[in-house]
């Protein structure tokens, strides 16, 4: 009896075809080989400040990512998907008053 339960619980699907645990339906997100990540300090039009992380897949050039963020937020209809810790934050260009990029070293 014990062997039957053990054999019944084994999957006949090869390990490379199985979904990761906790993922229901759909496919697992594909990780890019390289990704540029920057930290932004955003001041909103209401005066609040927020530190967020923005990631751009398929590029490792941080300067390109900074230019993309600035050009996107300079438009009234510009939208960025960012992260604040584990939370997804959607940042709308019309609500941003200023953006600071995290320093890359000591500021003299």
Low-pLDDT residue intervals, each spanning 5 or more residues: none
Shape: globular
Main sheet, how many strands, which sense, barrel? 3 strands, antiparallel
Percent strand: 25-35%
Task: Report strand order across the widest sheet.
Answer: 2-1-5
Count of domains: 1
Compute the CA-based radius of gyration: 21 Å
Number of H/I helices:
2
How many DSSP E strands? Answer: 5
The assigned structural class equals alpha+beta
Q: Helix-strand pattern, N to C? A: HEEHEEE
Q: Share of helix among residues?
A: 10-25%
Mean pLDDT: 76
Q: What are the salient characteristics of this protein?
A:
single chain; 108 residues; 34% strand; two-stranded antiparallel sheet
Overview of this protein structure:
With 108 residues, the chain is of the alpha+beta class. It has one domain. 7% of the residues are buried.
What's this, in brief?
The chain has 108 residues and is of the alpha+beta class. The protein has one domain (32-108).
Give the secondary structure arrangement, pairings included.
Layout: H1 2-9, E1 35-44, E2 49-57, H2 62-73, E3 79-84, E4 87-92, E5 96-101
Antiparallel strand pairs: 1-2, 1-5, 3-4
């Amino acid at each position: 009896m014990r062997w039957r339960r053990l054999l019944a619980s084994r999957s006949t699907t090869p390990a490379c075809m199985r979904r990761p645990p906790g993922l229901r339906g759909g496919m697992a997100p594909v990780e890019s080989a390289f990704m540029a990540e920057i930290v932004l300090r955003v001041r909103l039009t209401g005066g609040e400040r927020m530190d967020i992380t923005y990631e751009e897949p398929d590029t490792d050039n941080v300067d390109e990512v900074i230019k993309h963020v600035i050009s996107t937020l300079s438009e009234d209809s510009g939208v960025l998907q960012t992260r604040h810790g584990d939370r997804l934050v959607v940042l709308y260009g019309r609500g941003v008053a200023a953006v600071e990029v995290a320093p890359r070293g000591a500021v003299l």
